[in-house]
Write a structure and sequence with these properties.
Layout lengths: L3 E4 L5 E2 L8 H7 L12 E4 L2 E4 L4 E2 L14 E4 L4 E7 L5 E9 L1
Antiparallel strand pairs: 1-8, 2-8, 3-4, 5-6, 6-7, 7-8
């Protein structure tokens, strides 16, 4: 059975507003979004821009290998992805990379 290796520094980070994301990144990666509805919840991690809607929520129906401490995940490959933990007010987050080993 696979186990997960979680890589994170547990630092709390703030989300970025849409107006703070470079225009070329918005056009290239987030052109599908309604710019009047997706105003915040952007962040840059390991050189790439993401939006919170790029993640799937973790609940009782999620893959059993995810610790329910984390709120959402994003699959990057068959053996890796990202995890996100939201603060109680959803203004900040912690991010982690996971590896199946």
């Amino acid at each position: 059975m696979d186990t997960l290796k979680i890589i994170t520094n547990y630092h709390w980070r703030k989300f970025v507003n849409r107006s703070d994301v470079p225009k070329d990144v918005l056009a290239d990666k987030f052109g599908y979004q309604d710019k009047n509805k997706c105003l915040g919840d952007f962040f840059k991690y390991l050189g790439c821009w993401y939006h919170l809607n790029n993640f799937m929520g973790i609940d009782d129906n999620s893959a059993s290998w995810f610790d329910k401490k984390w709120n959402a995940y994003r699959i990057e490959s068959d053996v890796s992805g990202m995890l996100i933990l939201l603060s109680d007010d959803c203004e900040e987050f912690q991010i982690a990379t996971y590896l199946k080993v």
